[in-house]
Amino acid sequence: MSLGVSVRRASVLLVRTLLIVGMSATAFGQTRASLTGIVKDGSGAVIPGATVTASSPNLVGGPQATTTNAEGLYRIGELVAGTYELTVELQGFRTVKQTGLAVASSGTVTVDVTLEVATVAEAITVTGAAPTVDVKSVTTIDTLSNQLLQNAPVSADRRLITNLIQLTPGTYARAAFGAAGDDNALMADGISVVHPEKGQIIGSYGLSQYWLQEVEYVALGANAEFGEFGGNATNFRLMSGSNLFSGLTQYSSAIPRWTGDNRYDDTSRRLFSPPEVNADWEYSAQAGGPLVKDRLFFFSGFNYSHKLIPSPNAERTVDDERWRRVVTKLSWAASRSVKIEGFVLPDRITNAGGTEQVPLSAFQTGATAEAYLRPTTTYNGRVTWTVNDKTLVEVRQGGFNFKAYKDPTAPNTRLGPSPRTDDLTGISSVTFGSFETNRNTSSTTAGSLTRYFGDHVLKLGADFQRDTQYKETGFPGGKSFRDFGGVPNTVTLWDGSTFEAAINRADVYAQDTWTFRNLTLEPGARVDVHRGSVPDKGTVLSTNSLSPRLGVAWDIAGNHRTVVRAHYGWFNQRLYTGTFQFMNTAKQTPQITARVLGPDTYQELTRVSPQTNLGIDKDLKPSYVEQFYVGIERELKSRFSVGAQYIHREFRNILGVVDTNSQYAPVQRQDPGQDGVLGTLDDGGMLTVYNLLNPGQSFYLMTNPADAFRHYNGLQIVGTKRYDQNWEASMSYVFSRAFGTANNKQGDEAALGTETGQGGVFSDPNRAINSAGRPSSDFTHQFKLSGTYRVPLAGGIQVSPVYRYVSGAPWGRTVLIRGLAQGNATVRVEPRGTREGRGVSQLDLRVEKLVRFGRYTAGVYGDIFNVNNYGGPIVRFSASAVESSGASFGLPPNWIDPRTVQVGLRLNF
Q1: How many domains does one find in the chain?
Q2: Among 19-23, 661-665, 763-767, which stretch is predicted with the lowest mean pLDDT?
Q3: What is the CATH number for 105?
Q4: What DSSP string runs through 101-126?
């Protein structure tokens, strides 16, 4: 029986099962946290029939209770994050109350209880922390707590929620554990907020850091509930209301004259102007509480910000960004067994002259800035039905509506003038490179059934999602020039194109959990079915994949303090509309590469006609990551744990574009040296490059190139101190190394990047030269430390540091070979990753003076970003240094922000 038939039959079986019981959770395991344990008497014998109750002000629907089974086991699920009181009682025994149990948004907290025989009616109250280590789960979940989110200075631009991911182990430049940048599952309250075209974050990009209860980050040991990612899965958990009315209002602003200067040499001073801040302020207000005690909670927030900051490049383009965000969330206990919650989040961002997400690089003139408008609405609804004490059903519906308009800044328009890039200096000029109109939607309906059989838990789930993409794009004026030393050399002629595409995905999974005394076994499997379609051709891409998972967790001593975890699994990577939208050829125009002979006079070199030059392999296989990890975690003392893990990952069936028709012949050309100019003293030896013999005959086929590979090995050490005695902290160190022919820059996993897409290393033999090496986002050392401490002095002083050290990004020299039949070709003289840039070492610090009056707390704070005023290149969407030989070779295109200071006022109640 073929794998395709097996997958289809398994899919049908699971879908039928789910339709019988109901629908619910998404790819991010949505069952919330659980309290579990065994109740015994003083002799160690188990006690069945004891009543166990969990209570917290955050728990909508009021306290939850259960009874211990014949083995003395209890389990209370569907708990939200908060501090809990656990009460255990049985006639004839002293009632035990355990307070101060801190429960995160997910995972299992194990608390065993001993009941003593009662001589009189009395209760025992125990104040103590919940175990730090989750000994029941194979999955490693790293959490950014609410305490840290409210106090830590994460970035000088707190508006970018993606900066929070940089605090988690193994993630930098939005790339995690060897995967490509943005190859991550990103969610807001469990609903996907990933851009359908190429994986960037959408909905939770509009979240405010102050609105988050927790940030959960999963990459290692993820069970079958988790899918659609090659790097990590991150869930931004929104705050919910509670029985306690609370809120926050705050205002912060940068201090323009307190900005440092971290340009440390003549080169950095020449490339980057002294930083300035004309305006950079933010206002927030939020509140949450009960509309009906125990039954209906609300949370609502408003945020508005404005920044007017000149770009650090020499042109001093003003980044004028205005951003409005609103959120409303309701949590309702419709009955004792049914709970409903949901949120809606509209946000709108405009900028009259900047770049979305990052400032201009040193090699972009001010005229290349973009004007953009981006309105988005994200929504989510969730129903949880506790059928009985052994059965839980969940239902979820959510998605987003995203629009983005990017245009040249005035007086330039989409009609022109046309952009220029100089291959000798690396400088882009004249106007914004390409305009865009984007309209995207995503809708998810998901479901799960969880069934408890004592120490055995079975969960079946499904996730049905439809993503749509509409995109208009083109070059201003229909042309994009490549100059050489200020002289026009080649030009790409393109009248622009319109793409429409849609993805229907059905993901179903079965996850089993068995506990044998101190051993937990988690076998599972996940089936992912993807169908990509375009209006003029219907379905153009079909993939089916089966992802097996097997994990084990061993509570070594049985005291819930030390756990050994091991896991093996396949992780199917997400399919994007950008991978196949080129098949929508009805409104595409040819792209012509031509040599510039004079003003408006061109000689055609090559032509790509979408109708005849593009295709998809009918036997295309879905890409996936094969991962093995083993680790140990130990609670050294109350609320403090340390863990270590080894990770090995193999990236399989990588998507790439090959050219099946073009024919090349090897020719010899001289290396022009680092200056990029032939006939100078630094000229190198002869290079074997490839000349195109049949220009205009290319056929670009999306497939799984046989020579595309990448692997990753890493060692991770993590220390966690939960909030207690006025402080908490988190530390991580990751030592890793990746190697392969497929790079891991943004989009490279899905054949959308510059090295796996059309004209990349698998379709152009010139680009394939020296392509094996360390990928661009391979950071050997990553050390991160964050925390917060409240000094109990004069009402309180909150001190919160964040420190990051990340070793430099790999890069290697390339040269531009001119005069070939196909025009110019880029060739790697050095294997990718031969060189390494300068590492980033940055300390950020917040100090806040607190004043209490009644139930109100006022704070005056100062944030100092880059306290040590570190100066050096930073990886954004390009390498940390210019790789191409020429006047700019080895120079940094982007520079880390210098020391900046902002002050703020806030009132908590």
Answers
A1: 2
A2: 19-23
A3: 2.60.40.1120
A4: EEE-SSSEEE--EEEPBPSSS-EEEE
**In angstroms, rounded to a whole number, what is the distance separating the alpha carbons of residues 203 and 247?**
23
328 vs 196: CA distance, rounded Å: 25
How many CB atoms neighbour CB 377 within 10 A? 17
Tokens 């993805």, residue? 503
Structural domain ending residue among the three candidates 97, 113, 132: 132
Q: Is the pLDDT of residue 635 over 60?
A: yes
Residue 111's domain spans which residues?
31-132
**Residue 457 contacts residue 510 (beta carbons within 8 Å):** no
In this structure, what token pair is assigned to residue 814? Answer: 């390339």
Residues 266 and 118 occupy one common structural domain: no
**Phi, psi dihedrals of residue 13, rounded to the nearest 5°:** -60, -45
Tally of CB atoms within 10 A around 453: 9
Question: Tell me, what amino acid is at 192?
Answer: S
- The DSSP letter of residue 739 is E
Q: Is residue 410 part of a domain?
A: yes
Largest CA distance in the chain: 103
- Among 17-26, 272-281, 782-791, 792-801, name the one with the lowest average pLDDT: 17-26
Sign of CA dihedral 98, 100, 105, 107: negative
- Backbone φ and ψ for 385, nearest 5 degrees, come out as -120, 115
Last residue of a domain, one of 132, 156, 181: 132
Tokens representing residue 604 in the block? 């055609």
Same domain for 397 and 264, yes or no, is: yes
Residue pair 897/858 in contact (Cβ under 8 Å)? The answer is: no
Please state the separation of Cα 326 from the chain's center in Å: 22
> Does 607 share its domain with 710?
yes
Distance CA 778, CA 672 (A): 28
Confidence category of residue 879, pLDDT binned at 50, 70, 90 = confident
CA distances from residue 759 to 341, 468, 763 in whole angstroms, order as listed: 48, 26, 5
- Which structure tokens are listed for 344? 């809606």
Residues 345-385 pLDDT 10s: 999 999 887 665 556 778 888 788 888 899 999 999 999 99
Q: Model confidence at 16, in pLDDT bands (50, 70, 90)?
A: very low
pLDDT by residue (tens digit) across 708-720? 999 999 999 999 9
Least confidently predicted of 100-109, 219-228, 307-316, 593-602: 307-316
Same domain, 151 and 76: no
Residue whose entry in the numeric block shows the structure tokens 């009906």? 292
Exposure string for 818-844, b = 16+ CB within 10 A, e = fewer: bebebbbbbbbbeebbebbbbbbbbbb
pLDDT, averaged across the chain: 88
Give the whole-angstrom CA distance, residue 381 versus residue 384: 10
C-alpha to C-alpha distances, 554 to 143, 562, 616, 632, nearest whole angstrom: 22, 8, 46, 9
Exposure string over 779-800, b if 16+ CB within 10 A, otherwise e: bbebbbbbbbebeeeeebbbeb
Cis peptide upstream of residue 359 (ω within 30 degrees of 0): no
Side chain identity at 895, as an amino acid letter? Answer: W
81, amino acid identity? A
The residues, ordered by sequence, that sit 6+ positions from 352 with a Cβ below 8 Å of its Cβ are 320, 371, 409
